[in-house]
Model the fold of this input.
Amino acid sequence: MPAFPQAAKRELANSQLRHNLANATSTIRHKRASVVGELDDWAQLREAGAAIKAHTLSNLDNYLEQFEAAVSAAGGTVHWARDAEEANRIVVDLVRATGEREVVKVKSMATQEIELNEALEAAGIDAWETDLAELIVQLGHDTPSHILVPAIHRNRAEIREIFQREMGKVGAPAPADLTDEPVRLAEAARRHLREKFLRAKVAVSGANFAVAETGTLVVVESEGNGRMCLTLPETLISVVGIEKLVPRWQDLEVFLQLLPRSSTGERMNPYTSTWTGVTAGDGPQSFHVVLLDNGRTNALADEIGRQALRCIRCSACLNVCPVYERTGGHAYGSVYPGPIGAVLTPQLRGTTSEVDKSLPYASSLCGACYDVCPVAINIPDLLVHLRTRVVEEHDWRSKPVDALMSLASWVFGNSKRLAAAERLASLSRLVVGRKGTIGRLPPPLSRWTDARDAPAPAEESFRAWWERTRGGNSR
Done:
């Protein structure tokens, strides 16, 4: 996977992708704004969500132990996984112990993060995604590009082609007369998945929230596939990041208002499933929770970076990000795309690869992501923080840039020098900025203008205007 600038350049050349993204993200943005605007106490809800998450992270060790005790008391089993390899080994062993060779899955970013499907396939176990968008991605031999809508980069015509070409290879085929109407596409997916739901004895899920007080897991979704996965199989294995905990059942009252409004633009999710342990004769009779670290304690140790762990995976930041809207999720080289991916992935994976080193720079720092975040993660501050970390860890300082910054310091350190520089900049407009923008600057500034136009200097500086109109006096 190339670094973000190279990957983004490739994706920007795809006009169909840009059209699909612009249409989908604008629709979700408007829906979110409408339902958020209905609540007079949205700001207070946001503060409450941020405070609950911050408190939980500050006391995570205690809440994890409390959660384990509650799950065990309810008849479930808790497994601890330090990294992706350990988590995959636990899940594979649990599935093998049942004697089954397939599982159904309800969408889980944690399992995508650890590449569980690939680990199951290597062990001879088929994993079937049941979320409609995840099914599209899986059948298309693709990867997700959005947190909420993994197939956001596909339009209806492309989905129809995927269904007709691929469904029959792994199950019930798509109808020969399938059209690209949403109702017909959903019906084809429902028919294809129904036999898998009824046949499967093992399910793998994630969780939106885990309640320490009761040992309860929560999944919210819009299609009912999660409900099928969570109730029909005999064995349920839930892979849950340790940051998904909330202390009390009562805390869900806050998050079940924040999440649906921020993600799907709905007042509440059509399906909210909660389960606690095992109940005789009702639902799965064997229940396992795999608590996943995989870099999360490293993020927790960073006093500034840890706020990224407050994320509830709503995707609101993606839908307002001007960078994501043009490049899509694949350019980020991570299961977590967009602004939150740019600050979360380098903390989970480190900054050793070119991809992860480049992610904190995949932003315009416009701040729109912070404005919409339902748990008030200050993503712009985190981006700057991580850029500093990348520079310090990899000595990314550039001698030409250092020289330029030294020159800037010298100019800004004296008012007369600054005034002279302003006059020179205004004169340079005659050469470099006749159209109001600068299309190309020499190195090292070319690294900026290769990707965007720079504004030309003003015809008259504020200092010159003030001297001309006020004579330098404030009267």
Observations:
- The first strand starts at residue 77 and ends at 81.
- The chain is about 50% helix and 10% strand.
